[in-house]
Each structure stands twice: as structure tokens, then as C-alpha cells.
Amino acid sequence: xxxxxxxxxxxxxxxxxxxxxxxxxxxxxxxxxxxxxxxxxxxxxxxxxxxxxxxxxxxxxxxxxxxxxxxxxxxxxxxxxxxxxxxxxxxxxxxxxxxxxxxxxxxxxxxxxxxxxxxxxxxxxxxxxxxxxxxxxxxxxxxxxxxxxxxxxxxxxxxxxxxxxxxxxxxxxxxxxxxxxxxxxxxxxxxxxxxxxxxxxxxxxxxxxxxxxxxxxxxxxxxxxxxxxxxxxxxxxxxxxxxxxxxxxxxxxxxxxxxxxxxxxxxxxxxxxxxxxxxxxxxxxxxxxxxxxxxxxxxxxxxxxxxxxxxxxxxxxxxxxxxxxxxxxxxxxx
Length: 334
Hints:
The protein has 334 residues and is an alpha+beta fold. 21% of the residues lie in helices and 19% in strands.
């Protein structure tokens, strides 16, 4: 849980009472830590409003039109809880906000305001849907089926499938709409996070030769359960990340594909690429990263954990496996 000091309701003390903190009371900031040590009245709720960051993992508090506090995505790291207009120095639960009208923090909040304003456009999804579908169909041919994946709630999301004429015997499922919003937490791991924050998911299936296709009994459900995962959990998806497979492949033969590993094309981790989805630009001008899911077994997941994803992909390439899923694939030999 993240927390941020907003203001003292009583006069700032000279020293903090550690006993009160042990009793679970929120710590006061001391005279030396605040600009104004006088007691502050409880704000008028009607004059307060919040602005969430685009990623949903930070929030700014305004009083009327003035920014008074910002709890950032990096709250809780390196003793930074957040920023407050009345904090004079780095304190136990707040750091100085600085100029509430200019600066990096204000720019970040302003950018978030503009995002949510654009997100309120009722035609935004239909515009993006058209753009992404045109891009995908230029790569994979006309789409085969389309499913709504948002449950009737914001944000609008979808899953679409293709039977690419250029890859006979292959079916590819792709998400639509994830890339309309930055993923959370990614800026804690990438300096140029905005170039990695917009993603879509894809999962290619090799259709069975001697039995009925059952991919639609599980694949779109897998994508449907992952499509809101980053924003529901605060955990981002990226190349070589792994996640448990929530659905069983009904045609799996030699192993239980209980895990997935993400593969991103620009990593060049795989030598066999039957198709490419690179080149789509998001509505904020940043690249859309298509993350391809590769179903893997328990032993393969353990190998990734004990060795590395790089070594895993090296073994995958030596085995000659493609980037599309084969339900009858045998386990990798390490």
C-alpha cells in the first residue's frame, strides 16, 4: 500500500511522537519539514479532485485548480512516498512538490489529464479498431472472427483471429485495444519506457492435420484473461516475461502447457519467424510492441528460472521450433 502526507490538521510539532506511530496514527510532519507550521482545516471536498496517471499507478490531488500533492508510480522506492506543496524537505511521508505550475512533475500530471480527456472521446476505440485491423489485415489477410473482450465496461477491447493465406494451416489470434493505454510500472525498469509501454498480444496456432480445430475453446479465453491484467495488477508485460497459462490446450499430447513466455520480435530471440507484426504506431506516436505468447511446459519454465530466457530461446532455436504453437510439440531437451 502506498501513502502520502497531505497536511497537518494541528500545529506542526517540533518532534514526531514515535509512540503515536506505533499505535497506528499517521505521522505528522514537524516544524522543520513544512513551509507553514500552522494547523490547516479539513479541505472542502467539493473543491478537491483527482487526476490519475495514464498508467493508473499514480494520482495527483488538486484543490480548485491548484496541484497540492502527487503520489507517483515510484512511491515507496528510495524513501520517496510522494510530493506535497507544503513539504519543505524530504520527510518521512512527503517530499517537496516544488513549483506547482511548472516542472517535470506538473508536466507528467498535465500529460495524464490530456490522456483522460482523449479517452473520453466515444469514437476513440472505433478509430483505433479501424487502424489496427487495417494494419493486421495488410499483414495477415482478412480477419476470420472478432470477439468483444471488454465485458461491456471501459476500456473497450477485442480479440480477432486470422487464417493467413501466406501461412496455410496456421491460425493467429491478436488483441485490439490494449495499446491505447500505457502499461503501469514499466517506467521503473525502462528509461525510455514510453517506447515499451504500448502493447498488443498475439498467439499463433498450428492447426491439427488429423482432427478438428479446438483453438477457439481456449485461445481467446487466454487472451481475454490477460487483456486487462497489467492495469488490474500493476504488473507489466514484456519480452521474456512468463505467466501461468489459465486455460488447458485440449489437444496437448506430450506435455502440459501450463506456462507462457512472451516473445517480442525486435529482440531477435527467435530464428524462425513465420510472420511479422512490427510497424504499427500507437495513437500517441509511440511504437506498438506485439508480444507473442509461446506456450511452454513446467520443465521448460523451470529451465528459464534456473538458467535464463536467453538460454531457453537458444535451445528453442536449435530445436528448430517456430513461433506458432504446436499442441503436439515435445518438450525441449536441455
